[in-house]
Amino acid sequence: MWRICGGAIMVVGGVAAFIEAHRHIPVPAQRPEIGLITPASGLSPTAYDLVRLGGWALVIFGAVVVVLGLIRYAVGYAGAQPLTASEAISANGASRPERPPATVKTPAPSGIQGGHPWDEGSHGEAVEPSPRR
């Protein structure tokens, strides 16, 4: 659980680094010959790039740590509850006890009687005719 929380804190730290870098965008000094002189403001270009690079690193590394922590948590949870021999997983994922398959008696080939073909359809459809009255 500490991996998930630690990764989330790293992602939040990366977002905070992006916000801080945006507040201090480097602006070069303007020195017109006549008029108002504007001094340089913000971070130096190198420091700005390092803050943004550090923010990306925190976000990516934090997301990887969160995903790996969730995978480890899921594997640990699945391993803590093993299926016994008398349980199986149904099609919808719910556990249910396994029952032995029902045995069906197959008739002998001599005991099978064939029926008459359906030939009373009005337009040649393969439908069973209604019984005669």
Question: How would you sum up this structure, described in words?
Answer:
With 133 residues, the chain is mostly helical. The protein has a domain of 65 residues. The protein contains two helices and two strands. A two-stranded antiparallel sheet has the order 1-2.
How does the SSE layout of this entry go?
Blueprint: H1 2-23, H2 45-80, E1 87-89, E2 95-97
Helix pairs in contact: 1-2
Summary tags:
133 residues, mainly alpha, two-stranded antiparallel ribbon, 2 helices, 44% helix
Strand order within the widest sheet? 1-2
Rounded to an integer in angstroms, the radius of gyration calculated over CA atoms is 38 Å
Tell me roughly what share of residues is in helical segments. 40-55%
Number of helices, where a helix is a run of at least 4 consecutive DSSP H or I residues: 2
Mean pLDDT: 78
Quaternary organization: single chain
Overall strand count: 2
Helix-strand makeup class? mainly alpha
The shape, in one word, is elongated
**Residue ranges: pLDDT <50 for 5 or more in a row?**
none
Q: Distance between termini? A: 76 Å
The biggest sheet, with number of strands, parallel, antiparallel or mixed sense and barrel status, is: 2 strands, antiparallel
- Into which percentage range does the β-strand content fall? under 5%
- Name the helix and strand elements from N-terminus to C-terminus, one letter apiece: HHEE
